[in-house]
Design a protein that fits this description.
By secondary structure, the protein is an all-alpha fold. 93% of the residues lie in helices and 0% in strands. It has one domain. Helix 1 runs antiparallel to helix 2. The longest helix has 40 residues.
Amino acid sequence: YFRNEGSLTSSLRTLLFFTALMITLPIGLYFSSKAYVFEGSLGMSDRDSYFYAAIVAVVTVHVVLALFVYVAWNEGSRQWREGKQD
């Protein structure tokens, strides 16, 4: 029972971490890349910088999702191996 409790806590902690990443990282990168990279450094217009900043945000969402799947897969296989040895 207690082994299950620890794995549940670990899974919840991982889920909350990636949820926070999913909320903050794409939004932060959208606004910072729009202001500092596309408009500031590259001198793009508002319309173009919106488009490219949105691409940065979408790519960031996909990277965070891929990292979540990778971590969840490894955590699940680790728990399966530990459970199988018992």
